[in-house]
Amino acid sequence: MTHRFNPTILREYDIRGIVGDTLTEADAYALGRTYAALARDEGAQRIAVGRDGRTHSGALEAQLVRGLTEGGVDAVMVGMGPSPMLYFATYHLDVDGGIQVTGSHNPADYNGFKLLLKGRSVFGAEIQAIGRRAAAGDWSQGSGTIEEVDVRSAYVDRLLEGFSGNAYRVGWDAGNGAAGPVLDMLVDRLPGQHHVIFSQVDGNFPNHHPDPTVEANLADLKELVASEQLDFGIAFDGDGDRIGAVDGTGRVIWGDQLLMILAEPVLKERPGATIIADVKASQMFFDRVAELGGTPLMWKTGHSLIKSKMKETEAPLAGEMSGHIFFKHRWYGFDDALYAAIRLIEAVSASGRSLTGIMDAMPKTMATPEMRFQVDESRKFTIVDEVRDRLSADGAKVDDTDGVRVSTGDGWWLLRASNTQDVLVARAEAKDEAGVERLVAQIDEQLAKSGVKRVEIAH
């Protein structure tokens, strides 16, 4: 047998598409067979499998498991839960890898698979290789077993291990995503008063889209914090690996600001350690880590790339603007929004201030939201190269870790190609509105020189 995946679903970090259109149950089966063959090549036999709360996750999971077992691999089913619970299961159980069926923070009609094998994320070239292997029908044969294991209470125990935070009044918004049931178990055991909304799993996402990095999706959480006069609020994405937060006044705490707050107690215990943020992060973050005696490192956007860099630099903490926070300090190094929330409560406690007070004390800058605009897939990387070459020739201060990040007297701006879509992404930050306008004008000027007009698309 051979199987061809729609090439659009073989993404940089995972396999993801629109169910019934670019992604089918036949794809789930073929992935199971192909992954089983890959696993057995590496001597892997037992694989943990989890799923999110989307309406089609159960059916995709069933076909995935059929493929795994017919390929001769044993499936250990951990049931529905957030992606980080599946990641935890790969450490907690006697397994050689894991697969989570999840559409992450995408709309309700999307779904996909996040793959782990032998302690690593399967991404990039390895995902393309899965496509080729399925097309060649290079599959193993066998009859693997299926067992079901409930890891939820072990996961909650581990989340709370060594917890040293104070009691606060906290609002929580699970967005009807897969983290809801675990969140309900967690808050029962946390000190303080907890107000939880939308913890019932509903793959239709009836209340709002489960992406906490878009401010409009935090409206319900802000309202809860205001009406109940809470200390702060925390929100999760559809599969619980990205965190969003607001302070007691409803101000959004962006990914790089969260990372600045979380870094302080880590650097007290690990002086001089490397703390990583992606190229979209504020200059304030890098300055603050240096001020705290840490070694700030700017790295490429993308959870698999960040995890690899953390291993290389032995960084205890890393994060992205998109709300992925990775703790190696007292944790496993994977992105887990529930664990990041626990550490946020601890960090606020250790600071001796309120989260609102911490936010008040942060340096003020003006930043654009992430600007996204469509370009031809074949041109997206070359446009960034053209911009970099022109600016370098002009003697501009350019960092090309991931796209181009240009520093000027006003602040900085970034232009990079999305790894997962035919989109260019831009951002700018300055001390004031006028500075931001000058930086955005530079972005427009560079795009125009490459024949692109900036027409923004919605997230």
TrEMBL record:
| UniProtKB keywords | Isomerase, Magnesium, Metal-binding, Phosphoprotein
Highest taxon of the lineage: Bacteria
- Using the record's annotation, list all stretches that form the Alpha-D-phosphohexomutase alpha/beta/alpha domain: 10-137, 154-250, 254-364
What does this protein need as cofactor? Mg(2+)
Task: Decide whether keyword tRNA-binding is in the record.
Answer: no
- Domain Alpha-D-phosphohexomutase C-terminal as annotated: residue spans: 370-445
By sequence similarity, the record places it as follows:
Belongs to the phosphohexose mutase family.
- Name of the protein this chain belongs to: Phosphomannomutase/phosphoglucomutase
Organism of origin: Sphingomonas hankyongi
